[in-house]
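testing teh design pipeline on a random one, pls ignore if ur not involved
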C-alpha cells in the first residue's frame, strides 16, 4: 500500500473523530451529520434525512466490523484494520457518497458550485485550502462548476481504504493548504 493511502487512513480517522475524543464513537457521527445538514443550503428534507441516516449507517458498520474489544468505540488501532478487507465498507461508503452528492446538487443539474463544495467539505472537517485544491483538480468548467458524479467517485475513492494515487490525496499531507 502506498504512503498516501496509509496517511489517508489516519486523516479519515481524524475527520471522523469530530468530538476530538481520540476514538470514534456514535456522537462523532451525529456531530458530523448536524454540521453537514446545516451547511446543506437549499436541500429538501428527504435528502437531509438520508444524509443523517447515511452517517448513522456508516458508524453502525464501523462499530460492527472494527470494534474488536466490544467497548462501543473504535480506536485508531482498531480502525486501521479497515484496510485489510476494504470491501466490507463498499456499500456503506457508496450510500454515504450518494447522500453527500445529493446535497451537493439540490437543483439536480448534475453540477456543483465551488461555494457549495466548500461549505459541505468544510462541514465534514476538511481544511479550506485543500478543498480548493481538490475542486481545482476535478477540472472545473469556465463557470467554476464540477460534475457531481466526478465528486461522487472522488468521495468513494477517498473513503475506500485501499485506493492510491487519487485526487483526494490532495486532502492529506502538508503539500497543499
Ligand atoms: Ca470521538
Ligand atoms: Ca473498541
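output:
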Amino acid at each position: 500500500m502506498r504512503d498516501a493511502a496509509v496517511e489517508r487512513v489516519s486523516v479519515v480517522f481524524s475527520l471522523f473523530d469530530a468530538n476530538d475524543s481520540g476514538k470514534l464513537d456514535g456522537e462523532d457521527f451525529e456531530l458530523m451529520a448536524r454540521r453537514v445538514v446545516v451547511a446543506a443550503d437549499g436541500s429538501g428534507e428527504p435528502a437531509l434525512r438520508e444524509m443523517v441516516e447515511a452517517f448513522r449507517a456508516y458508524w453502525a458498520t464501523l462499530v460492527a466490523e472494527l470494534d474488536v474489544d466490544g467497548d462501543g468505540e473504535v480506536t485508531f488501532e482498531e480502525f486501521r484494520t479497515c484496510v485489510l478487507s476494504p470491501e466490507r465498507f463498499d456499500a456503506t461508503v457508496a450510500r454515504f457518497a450518494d447522500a453527500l452528492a445529493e446535497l451537493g446538487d439540490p437543483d439536480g443539474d448534475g453540477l456543483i458550485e465551488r461555494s457549495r463544495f466548500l461549505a459541505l467539505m468544510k462541514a465534514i472537517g476538511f481544511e479550506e485550502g485543500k478543498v480548493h485544491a481538490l475542486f481545482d483538480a476535478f477540472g472545473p468548467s469556465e463557470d467554476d462548476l464540477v460534475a457531481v458524479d466526478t465528486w461522487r467517485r472522488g468521495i468513494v475513492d477517498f473513503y475506500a481504504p485501499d485506493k492510491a494515487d487519487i485526487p483526494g490525496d490532495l486532502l492529506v499531507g502538508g503539500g497543499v493548504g
